[in-house]
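Appendix B, example 12.
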Amino acid sequence: MSTEAASATRIDAPGQLRTLRIGTRGSVLATTQAGTVRDALVAAGHPAELVIITTKGDVTPGPVQRIGVGVFTAELREALLNGEVDIAVHSYKDLPTFQDPKLVVAAVPPREDPRDALVARDGLVLGELPSGSKVGTSAPRRRAQLAALGLGLELEPLRGNIDTRIGKVDSGELDAIVIARAGLSRIGRLDRVTEALEPVQMLPAPSQGALAVECRSDDAETIALVAPLDDTASRAAVVAERSLLAELEAGCTAPVGALAEVVESIDEDGRVFEELSVRGCAAALDGSDVLRASAVGAPERAEELGRAVARELLELGARGLMTADGILPEQATADD
């Protein structure tokens, strides 16, 4: 693990506010994401700086699934536990499913659009890609759902930062890639999206597009400073989706998709109220079978709803699909 301060020297002089140290990976996307947290804290009157931390996933080549659990988060969390940083900012989907009791997600800021996005040559949308087109993605969830569409696509492995991935389309090596729309949005590259994939085509990864602002559980002061960044609807959605994943006992590279959204409903008296809609799927890696389930209820029941959808998937045979594909509980998370 290596760390490097990414802003001005900390201010710790008597009578002055301490500078909050925010741990982040060094990619453009990661520092942009962490930068939004830093800027929000600074705007609220709390000095803050970024500290760059190199993770195993940043320096280890090969498929993410083979590297290990928490490949993009373990070193960040270690630095947090060791007191090298006060806060760690993660792409929420990269966190292992089960929370370390010594750490707490103190805030889930407003979530970006969680959908997957297609970046294709010649401005093509998914249905316009000819059979045999080479489409890059290493995420089993995406590969399974793309295969299930029966479009005859050749699915190719894909790793690297966003520019590296897009470059494979620009060079002609690939006809298209599938990538999280949220990442493109955060670094100002939405102009490259040729189609945002609707959930009916492809359910996103649980908590895709959301950030996790993590603190030490015993650091009440920092937790209190970060708490105003929390968005209630985003947290409810993430809790439901990750509860679904936990109930399935599946790691974040399993071919499992989930999407929870707070929606407005109208009761029989015409009154508007909010509900949490939860959808989930589990798929065979070869796309031969996709199981789907859903539930709706009060946002306060987020965890219960997520687990209910997972149990329905299990009753439909999700465990058999994941076992057949060799997906083990808590395998590596995917930086996708």
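The chain has ten helices and 14 strands. Residues 29 and 133 are 28 Å apart (CA to CA).
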